[in-house]
Design goal:
Blueprint (H helix, E strand, L loop, with lengths): L1 H15 L3 H4 L22 H4 L17 H10 L8 H4 L14 H18 L3 H28 L10 H14 L5 H18 L22 H18 L3 H24 L11 H22 L3 H22 L2
Length: 325
C-alpha cells in the first residue's frame, strides 16, 4: 500500500509541473559540442599557392567600398523603390528629364529620324553600300529618344510603348554596324514598326525584350557622337547672325535639347568612362551649356545663345582632345 501511494504522488507531481511551453521559460538544452575544425596544412603545394596573392592589399587598387553607405542609401529610396533614373523619371544629379528636353522635342526627334532611316533602308544595295551607317545613327537616335521618353517625368507621346521601342531600336542600331542581308532585313522590319507607331498603332510585344535595362545598351557612343556633329552644324549656322538665329530659333531649340539629353545619358552607369570624374565633368559641362542655350532660345536671346554655344563647343573640343583616339 505504501509503495502504491508513493507512486501516485510521484505521478501527480509530474503532471502538475508545467512544461517550458506552458510557463514561458526556455527549455534547457545540453551544451552544444564544440566543433572541431580541420587544421590548415603546414605548407601548401605550389599549384594551390599560385592561386592566391601573397598580400591582397598590395594588389587591389582604389578605396574600399563603403558598404555601410550603400546600405543606408538603399534604405533611403522612397517606398522601397529603385533610385535608378529609368524608374524615377530623374536623370543623374537630381535633374528631371523635363529640365533638359521637352516632350515635343522627343516626339519630333523620332519623326525627323524616320526620314533618315527610310532613306538608308530604301534598297538593299544602298544599305550595303554605306546606308547601314546612316541607319545605325538614325536607329540609335530613335532608341535614345524612346529611352528618355520611358524615363521622362512628363506626359510624352508613345510612353506606354517606349520601353519596348527603346529595346527594339537599340538592338537594330547595334546590328547595323555592318551592311549584311540579315541587318538589312531587321532594319526593314524595324522601319515598319516605326511607321506603325507613328500612325498610332502599338508595337507588337516580343520575347526578345531586355528586362535588365542599361543605358549603355541604348545607343553606342559613335552613333551619339555622329548625332552631336549634326547638332553642332545646326547650332553653328543658327548663331552665325542674329537674323539667322531668329529664323531658326525653333530648330536651334530642338538641337540643344537633344544635346542636353545626350550629355546626360552618356553619364549613366555602364557607359565607357562613366566613372571617370574628368569625363563626367566634360559631359556635364556640355549638358549645362546646352541647357543655357535652351533657356536663351526660349527667351529669343541671341547674345546669350551665342555665348552658350561657345561654351558648348569648348566642352566638346576639350573632351575630344583628351578622349578621342
Amino acid at each position: 500500500m505504501g509503495k502504491r501511494i508513493a507512486l501516485i504522488v510521484l505521478v501527480a507531481l509530474a503532471v502538475a509541473v508545467p512544461t517550458a511551453a506552458e510557463d514561458g521559460r526556455p527549455e534547457r538544452r545540453r551544451p552544444a559540442k564544440e566543433r572541431v575544425r580541420a587544421r590548415p596544412p603546414a605548407a601548401w603545394d605550389k599549384a594551390t599557392e599560385a592561386v592566391f596573392f601573397d598580400d591582397a592589399f598590395n594588389t587591389l587598387e582604389g578605396e574600399r567600398p563603403d558598404f555601410a553607405g550603400l546600405i543606408a542609401g538603399s534604405k533611403a529610396a522612397p517606398d522601397g523603390g529603385s533610385m535608378e533614373p529609368a524608374a524615377t523619371g530623374r536623370a543623374s544629379g537630381g535633374f528631371k528629364w523635363s529640365t533638359l528636353v521637352s516632350p515635343d522635342t522627343l516626339a519630333d526627334e523620332i519623326k525627323d529620324m524616320k526620314s533618315v532611316v527610310a532613306k538608308a533602308v530604301a534598297s538593299a544595295s544602298d544599305f550595303k553600300g554605306g546606308g547601314y551607317e546612316e541607319a545605325r545613327n538614325g536607329f540609335s537616335a530613335i532608341a535614345l529618344a524612346f529611352g528618355v521618353i520611358a524615363a521622362h517625368d512628363g506626359d510624352v507621346r508613345w510612353k506606354k510603348d517606349a520601353e519596348q521601342a527603346r529595346d527594339l531600336f537599340a538592338r537594330v542600331g547595334f546590328n547595323c554596324k555592318v551592311g549584311t542581308a540579315q541587318s538589312f532585313a531587321e532594319a526593314k522590319t524595324r522601319m515598319a514598326d516605326l511607321e506603325a507607331l507613328l500612325e498610332g498603332n502599338a508595337i507588337e510585344a516580343t520575347a526578345e525584350r531586355e528586362e535588365d535595362f542599361r543605358w549603355s545598351q541604348v545607343a553606342a557612343r559613335p552613333a551619339l557622337m555622329a548625332r552631336l556633329e549634326t547638332s553642332d552644324a545646326v547650332v553653328s549656322g543658327a548663331t552665325a547672325s542674329k537674323e539667322e538665329f531668329n529664323k531658326q530659333v525653333e530648330t536651334f531649340l530642338h538641337e540643344v535639347e537633344i544635346v542636353a539629353a545626350i550629355g546626360e545619358a552618356i553619364q549613366q552607369s555602364d557607359y565607357e568612362y562613366h566613372d571617370d570624374d574628368t569625363y563626367r565633368g566634360y559631359a556635364a559641362a556640355m549638358r549645362d551649356a546646352a541647357v543655357r542655350a535652351r533657356e536663351a532660345a526660349q527667351k529669343s536671346d541671341y547674345d546669350a545663345a551665342r555665348t552658350a554655344v561657345g561654351e558648348l563647343k569648348k566642352s566638346c573640343d576639350t573632351c575630344h582632345g583628351d578622349y578621342r583616339s
